[in-house]
Amino acid sequence: MKASILLVGLGGICCSGLLAQAVDRPPAGVLSAEFEERIGEVVTGTILRVEGDAHIIDLGRNVEGILPQAEKARGESYNTGARIRVMVLEVKEDEARARVILTRAHKDLVRALFRLEVPEIAAGSVEIRGIEREPGDRTKVAVHSSDDQLDSVGVCLGERGTRVKSIIDELNGERIDIIRWSQDPEVLITNALRPVEASYIKLDARSREALVLVDEDQPPPANGDDEQNVRLASRLTGWEINITTRAELDQVDVRDPLRELQVAAIEQSQESVPRVFWFGDQGGASVYSTSTNHSNRLVPAVLYSGVDGLRSLTARRGVDLQQRGSGGQPQRVDHLDQTQLHVMLGDAVTLGAKRIIVLLLDGCDWQTYAAASVAKSGTWDPEGYGTGLAWFDASFPGVARSMAPVITSPLRGPRRPGGYDPARGGRFPWSTQDATYLRYDDPSRPRGDGPRPHAVADSAATATSIFSGVKTTNGRVNTLADGTAVEPLGRVLQRRGFAVATVTDVPFDHASPAAVYGSCKSRSEYAATLGPQMLGLREWPGPDVVLGYGFAHPEQRYLSDADLEQVQSAQSFQVVTSQRDDDDRRRLADAAAAVAQARRRGFRLGAKLFGFFGTPALDHAPYRTADGRYDPTPGIARGGGVAAPESYGELERDHLPRLVDLARAAMTVLDGVPEQPFLLSLEAGLVDWALHGNNVDHAIGEVLSAEEVFDAVTAWVSAHGWWHETVLLVTSDHGHLMYVDLPALRDMCAAGR
């Protein structure tokens, strides 16, 4: 309805037109409801006029929208009478009227334009996972599709770039970078930074900082001069990105206290001098080392469980140390034993757990954890587990965390029975200890007149306890002392439909990862038995993922060439081996994605992944040092004397897969069929190798590498919403005999910082 009314008192001026406009305008409440439903939509209007620094836009039906100065894109100009596309940002309503606020600057305008231009986005088959924008200059858009047949970036670009060009034209030439989204932060950062080509990325999960190394020969902006590119990439990925070259990094004058201490310890290894850390039972003012072997220390175990009915490790204390073993009388102690960890994992499956994850830090005891915590953050808990390392301090909604000390002794040793005496070894990992009682049984040392110490385990016996729940003698993998084989957790769960994945940064058939699946009577049979078992060349089909090192060993110590050729010809596994002239990390990630696709499609060939890495001189992943670099330090050789530091070039530093690369590849494969339950075993094997060499710098570096894996795995579980059916166990197989003056180490590290 329109009305023409003469308003008296206005000098006879007829306001019929103004009143007609007012009567035609929808009531404020109707307007508010209508446009609130359209928030986030693109609408087209006509520029009516300028009021202050805002433009008034005619949206039709006598509805006017406001484009404030703050919502204008930089560099754009607006002419009265021109048509304009804007996004409805919000509706503000007061007693008199409702105001429709419009935007040309918000990043969701780009999202809405893509929805209009790309049918696959409108249909939901391609998702926009993130947008960051500096209006008028540049936008980065991360896209993803769960459909393997769709190229998410390609459909957004359109044929010959026509789709994205329409959006760029609408935004008056604003640059748009379309990148492929990934749950792997390193891949996402790499994609987001292009045209920067990253040669190495180091992530600090606690601070969410990413250090990106680029080659010196990359022209600007690839060397980081394009601050806008880095700024947008940081916002898009959620990581604070810092770009540098290796030459620039090497010029930074920063003290490395752990390196200094390690080098000095080796240089003065035979002198009786005060020490910050030492190995053996000789005390801290004597020679550096009298022990390069394992000890009978308690080790920590940490359980994260979202499964109803399984909330605590401490409820399982009290164990017969020779439970399910053979021979001898049981010894009852008030601690957890590793065999109970196996029982707990089995109970978890019975209670409905579908994701069983074990992170094993080989050889890592409380003293090593505490030293790593001090090196990382300057803190440690002198009578507990927390303060400093992620698995002791993290929490997740609905997930219970519990911790307990665990006994590692085997069934028996050559000269000792199995067992543990808390009065001598300590009630807790941080308790006062009798180092002579804890040390490895060295036949060259006199036994003495005191009580006989208990036997010290190797990795085979301890891994058998964890994955089969039995006590055995050293050297045997999932085999009792009388030679009877037992079935490990990996094979049990595989028969129940679980996928099985093993990951390690030492040889793939090392005792700990092999114990997840294989069986063997003695160390002399490892190469001929465990490796082929893991790869389906014997009586069992093998795990779904086997990732580790040992490739190119000159003695074929870990897998024969004939067995490798047989695995490749069978085609069940996609096989990735090291290539000196190529990037093994990239090739591993590509192979994992291909295997995930094969599993998703139900293929049998190429639906498993075997990654076998190394060089003739390196049968393990490169040692990371405490400062995060890959710059090894000297240690003690197992036979005595000094072990010179390994030498790394670009291949070892930047291309061989690290533990976190291997873990992410396994997660990618398991994501191929996300509804399938799985057992994922992750071993940080280089803690043990470092401590055998009495190298604290390397050991701490490996603990921090394991922390990266913990962060990646827990983020993965959280992203999938799996915690209600997940059990995550973080533990060690055994300890060593390192002692640390933690206050002195803290002071040294503080001076270095």
Biggest pleated-sheet summary: 10 strands, mixed
Oligomer: single chain
Count every helix, treating DSSP H or I runs of 4 or more residues as helices: 26
Rg, alpha carbons: 32 Å
Question: Looking at the structure, what is the overall shape?
Answer: elongated
Lateral arrangement of strands in the main beta sheet:
16-18-13-26-17-25-19-20-22-21
Q: What is the beta-strand fraction?
A: 15-25%
Runs in which pLDDT lies below 50 for 5 or more consecutive residues are: 1-24, 317-333
Spatial gap, N to C terminus: 77 Å
| Class derived from helix and strand content | alpha/beta
Helical residues, percent:
25-40%
Average per-residue pLDDT, rounded, comes to: 87
Instruction: Count all strands and give the number.
Output: 27
3D architecture notes:
It is a single chain. The longest helix is centred in the last third of the chain and has 25 residues, at 696-720. The radius of gyration is 32 Å and the shape is elongated. With 753 residues, the chain is of the alpha/beta class. The strands form seven sheets. The protein has a ten-stranded mixed sheet with strand order 16-18-13-26-17-25-19-20-22-21, sandwiched between helices. Helix content is 32%, strand content 20%. The chain is built from 26 helices and 27 strands.
